[in-house]
Amino acid sequence: MNAAAAATLTRDEAFARIRLLRSPNIGPVSYHQLLRRFTTASAALEALPDLAVRGAARGRAAYRPIPTERIEREVARVRAAGARYMFHDSPDYPALLGNLENPPPVLTVRGDAALLSRPSVAMVGARNASAAAVKLSRDFASALAARGYAVVSGLARGIDAAAHRGALAGMADGGGTVGVIASGIDVTYPPEHGDLQEQVAHEGLLIAEMPPGTEPLARHFPWRNRIIAGLATGTLVVEAAPRSGSLITARLAAEAGREVMAIPGSPLDSRSHGCNQLIRDGAILVQSPDDVVELLVGFEGQPRSTVREVPDDFASDSCDEQADVADLLTTAPIGVDELIRQSRASAGAVQMALIELELAGRLLRHAAGRVSLKG
């Protein structure tokens, strides 16, 4: 559906979209596939029980979409928080985020959405950051916001908080800061960042993918990280340990074809090992805000960085003929392309069979387009 269609989205269809996304076993992957197949969320909701029956093992209870009363309560909470919904085909939905393979179908936002049309850079790093790295993050963010950039980060302790504070202090010429949280739009995490989160919402923009009232769980943070990476032309890692969430964000940015940058640090400090590893893997070494601007100004989708690998522990969630793929699946992840080859069915038929298994609670989706049966 294009932007013009989204602009005329009816209230009932908007409600149905939220309900579809919140229904059991529906994630961004299955949401987009269902909307492509059935055109409207209302039609997709009607089809869910039959699809689930086809994918279910014997003895499983009938599938039921989420009750409308729960969505009514959610909408009320969003309004009470001073937020609004933004759909994947809304005119103001950020173009860079929409370029992801499976962008977040529905966001809740508070603040100045005009920041989403500004040139943008993500800044991420360690929660237990060194004092020097915190100052560096604050100085970089202030300088970039003063030059009209939207500085995107995750409102975590350490580098994230310093980036937001620096951008808020330096914002000028349309620049500012965007905070992406792993909780609902009305939940503050960490608790001590209540004032900072409120300031970001009032002077910048606050974004959440999770429903209001959702407390941040470990599995939510990779989803938040993909939004941070997806919103920005480039991601700068200031300080990070190996196998940290910041490196996941950087590698997701690389997978999306964005620039990946890192500030080098001492090999004697474990908090610098992640940045140094990124540089060795192909990230661009930067030492000043001018270096960042030089890389991002006029960026046209051809990054100089060559980081490509996405960690295995980042899980994505998620046609007319039928495809029987359940017998081809085990608990070991396998690529959907391989399933298409082995099943000899069309891509659309295989994808619909996977949705049926997912609705029935039998399927797990993994990184790089792989799937498996639940153990």
Description:
There is one protein chain. With 375 residues, the protein is α/β, with parallel strands linked by helices. Helices cover 42% and strands 13% of the residues. It has helices spanning 3-7, 11-22, 28-38, 41-55, 68-80, 95-98, 131-146, 159-170, 194-203, 221-231, 245-255, 273-280, 289-296, 336-343, 347-359, and strands spanning 84-87, 106-111, 120-124, 150-153, 176-181, 205-208, 234-237, 259-262, 284-285, 334-335, 363-366, 370-373. The protein has a nine-stranded mixed sheet with strand order 1-2-6-5-4-3-7-8-9, sandwiched between helices. Residues 1-6 and 311-322 have low confidence and may be disordered.
Task: Summarize the entry for a quick read.
This protein is of the alpha/beta class. The chain is 42% helix and 13% strand. A 9-stranded mixed β-sheet has the order 1-2-6-5-4-3-7-8-9, with helices on both faces.
Number of strands: 12
Biggest β-sheet strands, sense, barrel: 9 strands, mixed
Bin the helical content.
40-55%
* CATH level-1 class of the largest domain: Alpha Beta
Structural class of the secondary elements?
A: alpha/beta
Name the beta content range: 5-15%
